[in-house]
User: Which sequence fits this backbone?
């Protein structure tokens, strides 16, 4: 593959500006190590890990990965202070923060020599992340899986707005699983992409095999943004998702929705394989996924398709074409 360099590859010391998202119940050390060893940036998802489990995954990744890797840290996690301590003690080089105020923890992480990136759903929060000292931001659109912003702004609109709002590098996320989508994001100003759903349907992902199979058989309309009165999350269609939709249609308040959600619902679905009653978080782009591949193949295919699209005569000669 041809050499490539921009602010994102230099910031992370990686070959390709492809980041694997830190999805809960899917992004353990095996996946993070495989992505990083393939030239992208692998991320351990701390949101589904107790502190001791996180330490084990970091140590395993350090043993099996010859290149930089990171940890995704949801700032609303109840043991956030313990997670930060472990990340600093284990000398993790890169941290992606999300779901919270970056000004609370970025200074301490930066003081420890850690590169900090924050995930945002609006230009307003991108500016706050830059002011907090973050080295880059991830602009994650409405199409994304997992927890989304209340604004419901699509990636195609969010990305140029964020790029115009900040001077630090912007990484695009939400609805991206191919090299052509990566090129589209970079034309809009991104200097890299973060992919979650594509890496859920991956051999090294720790998500349950039944969940992976359900993801690659998803069709149009099979995901919906739900639980907006709690924290918005995009759910794949199943019995639980339909219960949530029925409750919301009936006007259920936040307390009722929280009772319906209960505890451990995401683990039950994505990790333990209960495809009926589990919470199944995935992005709209799942409808484009039709195979479960090794992480290295995903990185290689994405970059190869990006390069092909970049040299496509339709794109190269577009300035000479009339609309």
Assistant:
């Amino acid at each position: 593959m041809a050499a490539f360099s921009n602010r994102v590859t230099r910031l992370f010391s990686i070959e390709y500006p492809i980041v694997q998202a830190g999805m809960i119940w899917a992004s353990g050390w095996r996946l993070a190590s495989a992505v990083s060893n393939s030239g992208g940036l692998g991320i351990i998802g701390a949101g589904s890990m107790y502190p001791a489990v996180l330490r084990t995954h970091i140590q395993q990744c350090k043993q099996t990965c010859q290149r930089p890797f990171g940890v995704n840290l949801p700032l609303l996690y109840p043991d956030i202070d313990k997670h930060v301590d472990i990340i600093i003690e284990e000398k993790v080089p890169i941290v992606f923060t999300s779901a919270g105020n970056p000004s609370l923890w970025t200074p301490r992480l930066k003081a420890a020599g850690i590169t900090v990136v924050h995930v945002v759903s609006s230009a307003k929060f991108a500016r706050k992340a830059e002011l907090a000292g973050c080295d880059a931001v991830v602009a994650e659109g409405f199409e994304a899986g997992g927890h989304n912003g209340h604004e419901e702004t699509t990636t195609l609109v969010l990305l140029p707005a964020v790029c115009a709002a900040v001077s630090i590098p912007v990484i695009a996320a939400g609805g991206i699983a191919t090299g052509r989508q990566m090129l589209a994001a970079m034309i809009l100003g991104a200097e890299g992409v973060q992919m979650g759903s594509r890496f859920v349907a991956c051999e090294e992902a720790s998500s349950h095999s039944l969940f992976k199979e359900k993801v690659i058989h998803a069709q149009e309309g099979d995901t919906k943004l739900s639980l907006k009165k709690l924290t918005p999350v995009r759910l794949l269609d199943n019995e639980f998702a339909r219960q949530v939709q029925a409750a919301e249609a009936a006007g259920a308040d936040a307390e009722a929705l929280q009772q319906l959600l209960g505890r451990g619902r995401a683990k039950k679905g994505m990790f333990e394989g209960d495809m009926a009653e589990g919470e199944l978080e995935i992005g709209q782009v799942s409808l484009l996924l039709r195979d479960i591949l090794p992480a290295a193949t995903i990185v290689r295919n994405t970059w190869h398709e990006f390069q092909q699209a970049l040299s496509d005569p339709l794109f190269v000669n577009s300035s000479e074409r009339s609309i």
Observations:
- Residues 319-323 have pLDDT under 50 and may be disordered.
- The chain is about 40% helix and 15% strand.
